[in-house]
Amino acid sequence: MPTKEKTEETTTTAGISAANWGEVNGKKVQLFTLTNDAGSEVKITNYGGIVTKWNFPDKNGKVSSIVLGFDSLKTYLAGHPFFGAIAGRYANRIAKGQFTIDGETYTLVKNNGENHLHGGTKGFDKQVWTAKAVDGDEPSLELSYLSVDGEEGYPGNLNVKVVYTLTADNELKIDYTATTDKATVLNLTNHSYFNLTGTPANTILDHAVRIKAEKYTPVDAGLIPTGELAPVAGTPFDFGPPMKIGSRIADTGGDPYGYDHNFVIDGEPGKLRPGAIATDSISGRRLDMATTQPGVQFYTGNFLNGNVKSDDGIPYSRNTGFCLETQHFPDSPNKPDFPSALLKPGETYHETTVYKISLME
Questions:
Q1: d(CA 36, CA 57)
Q2: CA distance 15 to 154
Q3: pLDDT digits (tens, 9 = 90+) for 239-254
Q4: For the domain with range 3-177, which CATH number is right: 1.10.10.10, 2.60.40.1570, 2.70.98.10, 2.70.50.50?
Q5: Count of CB atoms within 10 A of residue 231's CB?
């Protein structure tokens, strides 16, 4: 992939600065920095819509990033496990890379065993989005992208807009909207890996997590849901009371074992409601997540193997980050009993997710 890398300050508006970060196939890549007066600094690039850093002080005032990422575009282009990126058109998995709409079967690339994952070989995470600052009281960055009919096998020309807003309350609000000119399937998420300790030198196994879900979707060996909505009660998937991630992780099954499962968030989909809370006693940090989405994929970095390293040379090893990927359920296009991921002409896809960082009381 032809690239050119250069970083220099270019523009500054209220709460947002933009720096040239290089080029990909002749398209300008920038790195945007959103800041507030409450201690947060979030860095986002229009390459893949990636959140590269979220700097916030710990209980001792030490500032570090709570998400895994890199300082260099070149490092992202060398390959990474979707760190901080917008995943689409369909985040998560579609069984056997196929789905049917109105009797017509569409075939997608199989990039995860026999299944399709996160939009294919060149999903939204590898596109250069059009970026602009949004006028308002709080720093907002709007990213837009036209996914053309047939891209990665998906039908319809899809216009997508993602707006990141850093609020005065240290919330990173993500608004997703999209329209299409042909019936298609759509599932958008942000794939940030969190480590509240601020360094991948620590795992996330001692983080305590609460997930507000009475049910989850069991999966087969390929991590495709069986179609069942199973109760979490009495299983390693019960995070009703806060539980340390590592306390029952070995009981989850799978190879490698660990959490990589969709939880059915309590409450009414379409309404913004609390979904999860994570806390870390080392840093004293707390992360709250709320969303309009019906589900969240709780993933504990089971496939991180140390091949990719931080800017400080620390390996991103197994369990050095966790994800709360708000979403429609995996394989929903092939599961008619799941909430529909179908988007038709004349309809507008709109979902919101809010992550809030704070210090534990």
A1: 13
A2: 37
A3: 999 999 999 999 998 8
A4: 2.70.98.10
A5: 12
Q: Is the dihedral of CA 237, 52, 145, 272 positive or negative?
A: positive
Helix, strand, or coil (residue 152): helix
The residue ranges of every structural domain in the chain are: 3-177, 208-337
Right CATH number for 208-337 from 2.70.98.10, 2.60.40.10, 3.40.50.2000, 3.30.1020.10? 2.70.98.10
Per-residue model confidence as pLDDT tens digits over 284-326 = 999 999 999 999 999 999 999 999 999 999 999 999 999 999 9
341's tokens? 């991921």
3-class DSSP assignment, residue 125: helix
Residues annotated as catalytic (active site), given as ranges: 191, 325
DSSP percent split of the chain into helix, strand, coil, nearest 5: 5, 45, 50
Radius of gyration of the chain (CA): 19
